[in-house]
Amino acid sequence: MVIFFERLLFDPKGFWQRLIVFLLSPLGFLLGEISYRLMLRKKPVDFGIKTLSVGNLTVGGSGKTPLTAAIAALLPKPAVILRGYGRKSSGLIVVDRETPIETAGDEALLYKRLAPHAVVIVSADRKDGILKAVELGAEQALLDDGFRHREIKKLDLLIRPNPEPLNRFVLPAGAFRLPEKAYALADIVAVESIDFIRVSAVLNPADRMVLVTAISRAHRLDPFLPKGVIAKYSFGDHHLFSRSECERIIKRHDADSLLVTEKDAVKLESFGFNLSLLKLSIKLSETLKSKVLRYFLTA
User: Dihedrals φ, ψ of 200, to 5°?
Assistant: First the structure.
């Protein structure tokens, strides 16, 4: 079912999928225009800290989390502020490595792994998160998926996927959350393979590995998979794994290890299984790096 909807949104095939997209396209256009115009009405407020938002116009994975972490690594005293999608808590929480995943959400714990020197805050209200970051002594703020929050004075970086979705309609008809014209509102548009590239490595490889992942559009991992992958299991984005389902997969394939991304690892490490880690990091172009540093580190 997950794969069906991903194909529908990104690359519809066949008569029925194309018909669904056609029927939903007027609704997508209307919702997209309303969201776009509401954004334009917001007036930015300066919260006293230089703030950069890393976002995208499309649903699904585009490298937002590793790109944000790569930018955080360049900065001396950053805070990363995100909604904490999938968590079972509410309100504002300052996250550390010991915060339960149900409280923080998987992405927040991943940030603590990728950028351990950063303050990580989950808050549905990004303004409250920024104020807390200032209180805690942060000197730079990074908003994960903060493009729509134009009430905050910030530098907006939008990731442009490469390749882009073939379906150019707005949700629920297509993969875009806002009309494509919203790219013009960004200060920086970063294109994958031009402004940043993904670098992969496999830690603790095994002879018989089963890929188990809960990221959007898991097929994006295919170019990075090593030899020894004997089966692949893809779950919905932010899925919380259970020990029993992992045990069944290992037994079914007589696997030596589960091959997981870092986002998956934060949810699986406590189970004690042998894990092979597919480590995907981001390397920024010198042009993008200089733009970011010029914004943050000049008066």
Answer: -120, 150
What are the tens digits of pLDDT across the range 208-242? 999 999 988 888 899 999 999 999 999 988 888 99
Contact at 8 Å (CB) between 54 and 119? Answer: no
Q: From CA 146, how far away is CA 129, in angstroms rounded?
A: 12
N-to-C CA span, the chain = 51
Backbone torsions φ then ψ of 140, nearest 5 degrees: -140, 140
Structural domain containing residue 145? 40-195+283-297
The CATH number covering residue 173 comes to 3.40.50
Q: State the pLDDT at residue 1.
A: 57
239 and 287 in a single domain? The answer is no
Torsion 200-118-162-212 (CA) sign: positive
**What tokens were used for 13?**
């095939």
Same domain, 109 and 235: no
Contact 229, 256 (CB under 8 A): no
E-strand spans in the chain? 50-56, 78-82, 93-95, 119-122, 140-144, 155-160, 188-191, 196-203, 209-213, 229-234, 257-261, 275-284
For residue 150, being part of any structural domain is answered with yes
pTM of the model: 0.91
Question: What is the SS3 assignment for 252?
Answer: helix
Averaged pLDDT of the chain: 94
**3-state secondary structure (DSSP) of residue 114:** helix
- Per the structure, the count of domains in the chain is 2
Q: Do 178 and 84 fall into the same domain?
A: yes
In a domain, 11, yes or no: no
Cβ atoms of residues 141 and 103 within 8 Å: no
